[in-house]
UniProtKB/TrEMBL annotation:
Official protein name in the record: Ornithine carbamoyltransferase
UniProt enzyme class: transferase
Subcellular location(s) per record: Cytoplasm
Keywords: Cytoplasm, Transferase
Residues annotated as binding carbamoyl phosphate: S66, T67, R68, T69, Q93, R117, H144, P145, C146, Q147, C276, L277, R304
Coiled coil: none
InterPro entries (UniProt xref): Asp/Orn_carbamoyltranf_P-bd (IPR006132), Asp/Orn_carbamoylTrfase (IPR006130), Asp/Orn_carbamoylTrfase_sf (IPR036901), Asp_carbamoyltransf_Asp/Orn-bd (IPR006131), Orn/put_carbamltrans (IPR002292), OTCase_ArgI (IPR024904)
Any matching Pfam family: OTCace
Single GO cellular component term: cytoplasm
Family of the protein in this entry: Belongs to the aspartate/ornithine carbamoyltransferase superfamily. OTCase family.
Domain Aspartate/ornithine carbamoyltransferase Asp/Orn-binding as annotated: residue spans: 163-314
Binding annotation for L-ornithine: N175, D235, S239, M240
EC number: 2.1.3.3
Length: 318
């Protein structure tokens, strides 16, 4: 797969998987894999041989908590020779009267790249519209594209091309599920969603994936859904944007969609299990599955680093 050169990738935002051309997504995954291989076995703090972010400053803005996104972006920038500043939304003027547009214009005078994790997608979109530098979506209430880029990389490392495979999402049709739907359309795999009707993924996103040629199935029976799956994915039953007051109701609705040994038994014998983490053991997934032979959750977490390094290079065209 050819590398993208500066001329065809000048200043691009990474806002969502369905908004990024499929051939560019493929090039990002391939570059991530190459970069991972190139630094295999090195201490985490040792720089890459190539330093494409030398002299670049990256702002990492968090309006919600994060472990993986925060650390993987920070380490990734440093490995590529750049510098970071991690900013919490609460410490900035965001939401205190200054518009997102003005914040974007100001930040663009100081930094070369902005990654933001926020609540409402409109904040991300306004940031991207008014920033003169690329903006990366580090999770909104609606989508989580960086996570799914890592998931694609992880699947393909273990099992080869994901095109044509059967992926099953069991649980809440949330932001991570939305980006998986986008990826189904862009990478050409089929997705079966199993969960309660009240928590179905957005119809618009299902429509997009179907329009792109993927088979998207909604199956209320989790055991029927998981039959013959190549990959089973789940996520927390209560996301950061969900009110804690809905916790009990959500748990009651989702209990039968737990990923456990019984569910994994109906998937293919070599099926993989993924979870973006943080996981709530014995809720959406049992420890037996998390720590069992199908699980690749820690490779998946590691691959946030490699996938996002390639995303940042793509954004900057370097
Ligand atoms: N998966 C993920 O985005 O984790 P964090 O919330 O810890 O960043
Ligand atoms: N759906 C989860 C993902 C966390 C990485 C949330 O939004 O809280």
């Amino acid at each position: 797969m050819p590398h993208l050169t500066k001329s065809d990738t000048t200043m691009q935002h990474f806002l969502d998987i369905h908004k990024t051309p499929a051939d560019h997504l493929r090039a990002i995954i391939d570059q991530a894999r190459e970069m991972k291989t190139a630094r295999a076995g090195r201490p985490r703090g040792m720089p890459d041989d190539d330093q494409p972010l030398a002299g670049r400053m990256v702002a990492l803005i968090f309006e919600k908590p994060s472990t993986r996104t925060r650390v993987s972006f920070d380490v990734g920038v440093r490995q590529m020779g750049g510098q970071t500043m991690v900013l919490s939304g609460a410490d900035m003027q965001l939401g205190h009267g200054e518009t997102i547009a003005d914040t974007a214009r100001v930040l663009s005078r100081y930094v070369d790249l902005i990654m933001i994790r926020t609540f409402d997608e409109s904040v991300l979109l306004e940031m991207a519209e008014y920033a003169d530098v690329p903006v990366i979506n580090g999770l909104t209430d609606r989508t989580h594209p960086c996570q799914i880029m890592a998931d694609i990389l992880t699947y393909e490392e273990h099992r080869g091309p994901i095109k044509g495979k059967k992926v099953v999402w069991s649980g809440d049709g949330n932001n991570v599920c939305a980006s998986l739907l986008h990826a189904a359309g862009q990478f050409g795999f089929d997705l079966t969603f199993t969960g309660p009707m009240q928590l179905d993924p957005e119809g618009e996103f299902i429509g997009l994936a179907r329009k792109a040629g993927s088979t998207i199935t909604i199956e209320r029976d989790p055991h029927k859904a998981a039959e013959g799956a190549d990959l089973v994915v789940t996520d927390t039953w209560v996301s950061m944007h969900d009110s804690q007051s809905t916790k009990e109701r959500r748990h009651n609705m989702l209990r039968s969609y737990q990923v456990n040994d019984k569910l994994m038994e109906v998937a293919k014998p070599d099926a993989l299990f993924m979870h973006c983490l943080p996981a709530h053991r014995e809720e959406e997934v049992t420890s037996a599955v998390m720590d069992g032979p199908h699980s690749v959750v820690f490779d998946e977490a590691e691959n946030r680093l490699h996938a996002q390094k390639a995303v940042m290079r793509w954004c900057l065209g370097v």
